[in-house]
């Protein structure tokens, strides 16, 4: 008992503080996921992973949320991290990888991981799902030439998927060795070289990147990718006259393909030509570009710079929902 000055007595209060642990955050995340509140689920699960980074269950659940919102690249990265950390003992990851690759259209990879799962999980929770997936993707084994063709196409798509994720997340040093391999394996795909010079430039090899792009432009004076890259390179290098020459060349170019349209819009936005960027972003079909974090990021920044904060915020929120990594970056309102 404690005697108070006014003569009133009360019990000593011993308050035990509540310190949430990983299971608490995980439960909250799972509940949000069940209610289709995916953005909230990601926030709780991220806290769970921060609390217990070695718990594979938390990371697998996060990957499932990413899969649900179509962020297959982020989901696969988490699953591969779990397999590496657990010495490939967390076999559920194989089925989840198979499912993601099926969504991405990489059927041989999907079959491979589904088979690994079935071989290693006799009584696994996803066994019937994996068997159903295998049935859906069944390819006649007797068509040997077709199998070879699928293998080559899948290999290219796997490279492109991985590099796309690294480029979207500005992971240049991870992208460069893969791009160097692709230059050897798929020399007929000219866009690879432009991605390579882009990654080189932003990893610090500015002179090499500019020289390589100038060589390509000399061979192909109308190369859209060369003009967009050089516009960016010269802007970042402070070579304004050279920058103006290339951006003016782009101002009258209106490509047919959505990816090329986005490339021009982002180039305009990243180099401060926001009015031009806004006009190009408005012409894009968003449903074709939902997997591109750069679409939401630079369209949001462009809208904010042109005095449309509500539109900028809506784009940013949608981008963060579809690409959770975007939430870790500064919003458009914090950019000068």
Structure commentary:
The longest helix has 25 residues, at 144-168. Among the domains are: 22-136, Serine Threonine Protein Phosphatase 5, Tetratricopeptide repeat; 273-336. With 336 residues, the protein is mostly helical. It has helices spanning 22-34, 38-51, 56-68, 72-85, 92-104, 107-120, 127-136, 144-168, 172-185, 191-202, 206-219, 224-237, 240-251, 258-270, 274-282, 293-305, 309-322, and strands at residues 2-3, 9-10. It has 17 helices and two strands. Helix content is 69%, strand content 1%. Strand 1 (2-3) and strand 2 (9-10) form a beta hairpin. Strands 1-2 form a two-stranded antiparallel sheet.
Strand order of the largest sheet: 1-2
Percentage of residues in DSSP E strands:
under 5%
So how many helices?
17
Overall mean pLDDT: 84
- The CATH superfamily label of the domain at 22-136 reads Tetratricopeptide repeat domain
Which regions contain 5 or more consecutive residues with pLDDT less than 50? 140-145
**CATH topology value of the domain at 22-136:** Serine Threonine Protein Phosphatase 5, Tetratricopeptide repeat
| CATH class value of the domain at 22-136 | Mainly Alpha
Largest sheet: 2 strands, antiparallel
CATH architectural arrangement of the domain at 22-136? Alpha Horseshoe
Cα-to-Cα separation, first versus last residue: 60 Å
How would you describe the shape? Answer: globular
Structural class: mainly alpha
Radius of gyration: 25 Å
């Amino acid at each position: 008992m404690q005697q108070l000055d006014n003569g009133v007595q009360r019990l000593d209060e011993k308050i035990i503080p509540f310190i949430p642990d990983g299971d608490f955050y995980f439960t909250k995340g799972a509940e949000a996921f069940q209610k289709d509140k995916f953005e909230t689920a990601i926030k709780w699960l991220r806290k769970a992973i921060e609390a217990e980074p070695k718990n594979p269950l938390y990371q697998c659940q996060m990957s499932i949320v990413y899969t649900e919102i179509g962020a297959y690249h982020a989901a696969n990265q988490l699953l591969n991290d779990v397999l590496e950390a657990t010495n490939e003992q967390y076999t559920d990851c194989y089925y989840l990888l198979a499912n993601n690759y099926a969504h991405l259209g990489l059927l041989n990879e999907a079959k491979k991981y589904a088979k690994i799962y079935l071989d290693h999980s006799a009584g696994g929770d996803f066994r019937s799902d994996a068997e159903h997936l295998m049935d859906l993707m069944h390819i006649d084994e007797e068509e040997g030439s077709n199998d070879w063709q699928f293998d080559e196409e899948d290999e290219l798509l796997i490279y492109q998927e991985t590099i796309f994720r690294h480029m979207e997340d500005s992971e240049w040093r991870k992208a460069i060795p893969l791009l160097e391999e692709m230059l050897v394996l798929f020399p007929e795909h000219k866009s690879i070289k432009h991605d390579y010079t882009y990654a080189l430039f932003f990893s610090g090899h500015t002179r090499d990147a500019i020289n390589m792009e100038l060589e390509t432009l000399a061979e192909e004076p109308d190369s859209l990718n060369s003009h967009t890259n050089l516009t960016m390179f010269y802007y970042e290098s402070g070579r304004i006259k050279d920058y103006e020459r290339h951006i003016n060349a782009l101002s009258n170019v209106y490509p047919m393909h959505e990816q090329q349209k986005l490339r021009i819009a982002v180039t305009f936005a990243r180099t401060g030509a926001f009015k031009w960027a806004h006009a190009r972003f408005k012409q894009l079909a968003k449903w074709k570009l939902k997997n591109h974090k750069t679409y939401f990021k630079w369209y949001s920044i462009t809208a904010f710079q042109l005095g449309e904060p509500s539109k900028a915020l809506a784009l940013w929120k949608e981008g963060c929902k579809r690409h959770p990594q975007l939430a870790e970056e500064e919003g458009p309102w914090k950019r000068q």
